[in-house]
Records
---
Amino acid sequence: MAERFEIVTKAIDKMLEEKKYAALRDILLVMYPSDIAELFGDMEEDRIPLLFRLLPKELAAETFVEMEPDAQELLIRGFSDNELKEVVDELYVDDAADLVEEMPANVVKRILKQADPEMRKSINQILRYPENSAGSLMTTEYVSLRPDMTVEEAILRIRRQGVDKETIYTCYVIAKDRKLLGLVTVKDLLLAEDDETRIQDIMLTNLIYVNTQTDQEEVAKMLAKYNFLALPVVDGEERMVGIITFDDAMDVIEEETTEDMEIMAGMTPSEKTYLKSTPLDLFRHRIPWLMLLMVSATFTGMIISSFEDALKFLPALTAFIPMLMDTGGNCGSQSSVTVIRALSLDELKFGDLARVIWKEIRTAVLCGICLAAVCFGKILLVDRLLMGNESVSLLVDGVVCLTLAVTVVIAKLVGCSLPMLAKKLGFDPAVMASPFITTIVDALSLLVYFLFAKTLLGV
Amino acid sequence: MAERFEIVTKAIDKMLEEKKYAALRDILLVMYPSDIAELFGDMEEDRIPLLFRLLPKELAAETFVEMEPDAQELLIRGFSDNELKEVVDELYVDDAADLVEEMPANVVKRILKQADPEMRKSINQILRYPENSAGSLMTTEYVSLRPDMTVEEAILRIRRQGVDKETIYTCYVIAKDRKLLGLVTVKDLLLAEDDETRIQDIMLTNLIYVNTQTDQEEVAKMLAKYNFLALPVVDGEERMVGIITFDDAMDVIEEETTEDMEIMAGMTPSEKTYLKSTPLDLFRHRIPWLMLLMVSATFTGMIISSFEDALKFLPALTAFIPMLMDTGGNCGSQSSVTVIRALSLDELKFGDLARVIWKEIRTAVLCGICLAAVCFGKILLVDRLLMGNESVSLLVDGVVCLTLAVTVVIAKLVGCSLPMLAKKLGFDPAVMASPFITTIVDALSLLVYFLFAKTLLGV
């Protein structure tokens, strides 16, 4: 994907042809796992296994984790049982659980067969939690300490156990019944003045933790808010079961943002990247909302049909319909997107509804007056003077601009309140973005338009 | 803001009234800085200084950093010079620099006067870098090691210096000329088998670093991609000048995402939160695009005017205009938002344009056929049979559905290609989202509609 790999890719192609494997290995050794995975993503598939086998064990596992599921599957199918065991042994439990979730059943069977019994148990434990829950995101590999250990003993334990843990920098203090008592950071341990100090005397007991059932988005927000390296996860009996690290939170935030944007553009969220999605995938994610919104537009059509006589009498009115609809849609989108984002950042709660509405009304009046004034001048100048359209009288101009101003206010009200109502009712507020708001505002703006036309122009 | 603070707020109100300051302090002591700041945000302003003064020094500084700029300013104006010095002394340099950027000139003067000379120098250095650059985001407080130190000496140095550093877990190995040579983590140091090992023998030399001028979005993406705790920042001569930590990256990602969403909804990005924005602020950020798009709709109006005779002859055609425009707009938004997001995640580059277009054409044909088929049936059933609208003949139905199918293809083509072209030309692709795409697609769909109507219906 990235252009900066083009040179490397060409060099590797040449070395592969000339079978210079030692030199190839030297190149890969200085690269980072996520860069190697990206390189593999751009490569002809049959070359990946050969290159992958050149990587030393640890780098191979780290690269494997960063690869796309289809490339992972391809590799596993080509692995001997021994090779598979080597990779699986090096994986962290949460990555292994992710892998098992992504792979088809027969591949999963092989993976679980090669995992050692303890890892198999942990994988199965993680897989039991609902998708997108803290339990399914966590890893069970953390450093645990006892409250009566001394600082020296704690450091010794980290030195002995640390190599297999996802983070050693936050250590959790656990009672005999596995209840979470507190935490100490490696910084606390290193800066402790006396090596004989007991952990229970320096540990932080005012803990922030999540439950295995907590939604992953909530977890990510908490990590971002408190700037923690990791959050402890406890079960229903408050026993410590795992940790979630900040890098997983960053992935969750990226994933959830993409999902929000997709929903806001009227699509059902997809887990595949764009280039990996087939047209059929895209079609399936896009057609439901398109269909629903198209059918809803029937009402807009009915409104126009019922005012057919007015339009026949004064055809010039038709020319302003797109402008009125689009401006209304744009105004509504602005408000809805602003509110949806503020809701997702927890800057707004339902109790703020009145404040939001009052703020939007004043904003809408400002926007409405400004747009109507410019529109009035524009119609006068362009439609009447430049194009010489006699039927666009000053009164018609007035009706259009009055409708515009009223539409702006309606659009902003609908746009700001629907997402908040949706959230209150337990729906995803992102659904109440542009496409949905536009459809509603279209119908309302046409009704206002024809009402004003009937009343003021007598058509 | 958050409902969970309501109980605490009430308890605090009561204690303030009864002047139970010791109990108040005990409550605040078990809270996290970001929670206290959130609590202050919901409180009457005159209570904040009193509560703030109850906090111990370090917690006070940490809370101060998490507060909104206007609350910070209020506090500083109430501080004695001594109180101000106490807070400033506890701040990390990057937070102090952020503060100085946000405050009005007279407050800045007081802050800089209270800062010790070294911090003043560092603040001024950071402020010289362009806004949103790595230089302006970094902190100069990191642990630096010499290559010839032993592991034992390095740990000793961390113990001595660590208390004031933003992170101690990644330490940077610096040559005498301040060039960056490598890095070691505290994990490497703790897990090193021999205390006498030299740092140069265990340090990682294959470094990922950024320049002071690198854009903050780029920095955040790199931290997220490589899962680092911190990234080193070097100057034009490759000398180490600071680090950026993962928590700052998370803030940047949140900020940039909000900005993208605002641009995609046709607003100029704002730095204030929604509830802090006045209607005038909102108006200023929303009116430019509304105005531009409203005026652009003149073309759509002209297209309709020039086909006025056709509409007069067959008024039923008018009723389908909103449905055609909206469906086109929705189709275009779907493609543009998908492509904009993929571009911002670096999943797509300009070289993929042909692949993207080919994918979108196939998706559009699928969507187009599906929508047109349903639309044909719907018009037959609703408009002809239910509403008995005789003028909607099978041929009119056909023209509408043919237009619909062609519009879908055009919309998806415009939607996917404009963001990529914008990026290629150095513009922000997010500008090419719903509002802009909708305006273009509207005009094109009307042209297609009237062309088909003229050709096939002879109107």
Note: Chain A touches chain B through 119 residues (CB under 8 Å).
---
Amino acid sequence: MSFDRLIDRIIETKNPSVAGLDPHYSYIPGCIKAKYDHVENPLEAAALAVREYNFALIDALCDVVPAVKPQAAYYEMYGWYGMKAFAETVTYAQKKGLFVIADGKRNDIGSTMEAYAAAHLGQVEIRGQKLSPFGADALTVNGYLGTDGIAPLLPACKEFDKGIFVLAKTSNPSSGELQDKKVYARPSKTVYELMGGMCETWGEEVPGVKYGYSAVGAVVGATYPEQLSELREKLPHTFFLVPGYGAQGGGAEGVAGAFDKQGLGAIVNSSRAILCAWKKEGCPEEEFAQAARREAIRMRDDIVQHTGLK
Amino acid sequence: MSFDRLIDRIIETKNPSVAGLDPHYSYIPGCIKAKYDHVENPLEAAALAVREYNFALIDALCDVVPAVKPQAAYYEMYGWYGMKAFAETVTYAQKKGLFVIADGKRNDIGSTMEAYAAAHLGQVEIRGQKLSPFGADALTVNGYLGTDGIAPLLPACKEFDKGIFVLAKTSNPSSGELQDKKVYARPSKTVYELMGGMCETWGEEVPGVKYGYSAVGAVVGATYPEQLSELREKLPHTFFLVPGYGAQGGGAEGVAGAFDKQGLGAIVNSSRAILCAWKKEGCPEEEFAQAARREAIRMRDDIVQHTGLK
């Protein structure tokens, strides 16, 4: 009922970073795609290629990174075939010991949000049988709807030892259009501070046991280092998922502020730089998984250098 | 590239309401579920029951309502089998002439948001073939990330004549925790007004031709009648999707303010009251679809009475 499980894995691998599994069709080497040329439905063929691509990446990364983060959009784009590959990716990664963060940014209220919680973190009961439809370890969510959108997730976090990451300050250039706006309060605060404060409150129901971080984390972008440091200080029980390192322009110095004195408190994501390492290196495409591993190791060393993780 | 197509259908059916297809397992009559008892995987059995339930509802509703709104959470809860039922529901509803609003509240940035746009509104190109993975007519989205999260949807709206609904003021009790907060501006405005204003701006790129409503709509809850009227006045080019009628406590008088002088400008959603009409009526469960039709007609008459739609 907290991020203890993830933090255990981070300490074990000495690596506070997560590999984003965003299998855009153009990222997948031709040698994998060619294997499914005989499959008639192109969406099915693409989804099978995604599955093979992901499994090979997971094999190459599972002793380097503590976690992977499949992004739902890149599976939905292949229709229900893609969602099958998504489910299989989650299961395979967990079998290999990885903590899986489903990046869905889901949001709704009441029984609808309970349905998302059951789909991605908990269980569904049908004919007396309990089943885990997708069964990730954590889910990213959007808190625009307030407590009604977050509270339905907490029972699943408690019962199944799962976590959520609520969008606070995102890494994109236009995030400030809403998130940086100051709202009337005493003292006045920005929307992202307000959201961060709500994460602390929501987290009280699912507190951390070993490390002090609750099951309610926050997404805070690597591209805004000052806000990262500021929020780290103000939100002592909120674990951070930090996107925007690498391809989006955030560097390792910039993410340093996301970490506490023990070098914990955050996990930094990289997707494209890892997935497309084979392109950047210019190595044979068959070596895509080894190239991803090399980039993941480079990233780990780069980040650990700037945190106090021992 | 606007909501003209939806509004045409509203005028044709003389009905500015949409039936939400939220197939919670408990809503489905036992006589349908029993047909799939022989299917080994319970998630698959449930998804097949959902499919049959939806198809029967669509048959019963397609000449009464202009649109249906399947809510993604109630399909994801049955895993990828559920997403297959979701895709089949979209296709079947469109075949029956219905406008389909995929209620996914999706949100992300850049190429990830493009992937959602391709998945739900546009096309994906694989092996030179262009395919529509889910192919809805409109998608609900969450604008917390700002323009970077909305702009990637607009090309799909233009190219394929689709629309989006951005969450502005949602119908739930806690929506005010963030959405009602006043932000510093001249004059000061609430977060939902800010979001509504952005909808007007985003919509300029995809303007309406026949009725003046762009392809960027907003979600505004029936449970906040004052805000509905206020936003209707301030956002003359933004079409509203209005949840919260019926089961959530919003009445027909309350939604009147959502409409313009022609009785257009909004579509009111009801899910549970239509889906569970057979339970409320206490009719034989085999009559669930006819009961849904009776409730949809009752709702239409109730709402039209309070709008100027001719």
Note: Chain A touches chain B through 72 residues (CB under 8 Å).
